[in-house]
Fold these 2 entries.
Entry 1:
Amino acid sequence: SQQGEEDPQALSIQEGENATMNCSYKTSINNLQWYRQNSGRGLVHLILIRSNEREKHSGRLRVTLDTSKKSSSLLITASRAADTASYFCATVAIKAAGNKLTFGGGTRVLVKP
Amino acid sequence: EAGVVQSPRYKIIEKKQPVAFWCNPISGHNTLYWYLQNLGQGPELLIRYENEEAVDDSQLPKDRFSAERLKGVDSTLKIQPAELGDSAVYLCASSHRGGKAEQFFGPGTRLTVL
């Protein structure tokens, strides 16, 4: 079963615009991670935000976390055609054994040149 | 550093046939995962290994799926017999032991059952 709900399911933007996608989850978490998946390929880790953090940046990526609302957002600034991919949030629950990730359904992003 | 290697990349079989997927994790990674990803959905964990021990196989359909990780390095996931509903991408990932570290994913094996 998937814990997260991602919104929107699909997003189409022009190159240079910003892309924002949201993730909601159900249980208390230790951390939340965002992954990118290009067509036909495996997932690539983008960024990890811990439950005691509210915002994190990595290059053109900005992630926020609101544990009171059990939600997170991923912002990609100044998008490029190469950012076209599916983006997944994944949570590690507080009581999860090991490093068990529970993924959301993903947001499919299309960046048009 | 070499990434997670999976083979084959694509497999087409008829229902009721057996199929096996192979994964070689990143060198030094003790933890290995197998995920199932259906079209348009996020991955779902099938089984997690710590070295050669399967420590979480609660999501593995044991009537037809099996996995092994001999010597705590490479791993094989098998389906016997395959059903139409098994058509999906099977992803392997690895990570360092413990902590809440990121996982590194292989390219996956896309299985089509006819």
Entry 2:
Amino acid sequence: EPEVTQTPSHQVTQMGQEVILRCVPISNHLYFYWYRQILGQKVEFLVSFYNNEISEKSEIFDDQFSVERPDGSNFTLKIRSTKLEDSAMYFCASSGTTTGQPQHFGDGTRLSIL
Amino acid sequence: GESVGLHLPTLSVQEGDNSIINCAYSNSASDYFIWYKQESGKGPQFIIDIRSNMDKRQGQRVTVLLNKTVKHLSLQIAATQPGDSAVYFCAEITTSNTGKLIFGQGTTLQVKP
């Protein structure tokens, strides 16, 4: 069964450094998302991406965050200058041809900011 | 504001019993609902979904019920097994929007052998 893959599984970074989290969505999907989950809390929406542009972003997704789909297979989340409070699990998800189809998630990247 | 919540943070059941996990949502515009299972160190895994034009949907050992009048969802797991132990989240979508999922807090299901 096709799956969403994310790399790396764990990223440790000094505060103020840039990080790039990578995702390969399911190949025929058109809608892409990033979510984050702080330890022990619920999953929170960050950003949605469709047709090569951001369709919605949350308050969390400030100017330090950006997303890109540099080619036909990868979808990246960049945090320009990381803060301690960016420490969380970051999940990528994708869904098919409409917003009314299930989103499938990767196993996440654990981001630890020191 | 929008929110999706679960009534109980932890549910403990005996192996073989049926489990019922509840969820309340607040956005009347939500028209698509999904239950996810999350095991430790993993991403949310799709279990079952239901659209707002239905009130019940069955899968393999799982049933989702939707009551739009009181904005309530439930997930029923038949003959609960140790492998069902995980955190369960309900999530809602307004499909006319961007498809963002709004998750509830999660219920931890513990299955006792």
